What does this fold into?
Amino acid sequence: MPEESEASVAGEPDAITVQHALDQRANVATWAAAAYDDVPLLAILDAPLRSGEPASIGFARKEQALRDAFAQLSILAARVLEKRLANPTNGDRLAEKFGRLTPERKQRLLHFLADARRRAALSGRR
It folds into this structure.
C-alpha cells in the first residue's frame, strides 16, 4: 500500500499537483494572450484626451472605441478577453490599464464582452 505524505493526509495538495496547476495556468495565460493582439486596445487606453476635450467626453470616446474593437472579436476571443480583464494577473499591461477605468465603465465593457454570443446570434454570425 502506498504511503501517504503528511501534506496529502492533511488535505493539502502535494508539490506535483501544485506544479501541474501552475503549468496549466501558464498554458491558459499563454493561449489567452495569443488569442488577441493587445496593441490596438493599449493604443486606445493610452491615447491622450484631445485638446480642450472634457475628461467625461474623452473617456466616453475611449469606451466607445473599446466597444468597437471588442465587437470585432470572435465569440471565443471575446470570452477569453472578458475572463482576462475580469481576473487580472500580475504583469498583464492591458488588464492593468483596463483596471484604471471607472468601475461603471469597466462593468459596461465587461458585460459587452460577455454578451458576444447573444450579439452574434442576433446578427447571424458565429
In short: The mean pLDDT is 83. The longest helix spans residues 15-35. Residues 67 and 112 are 7 Å apart (CA to CA). DSSP finds eight helices and no strands in the chain.
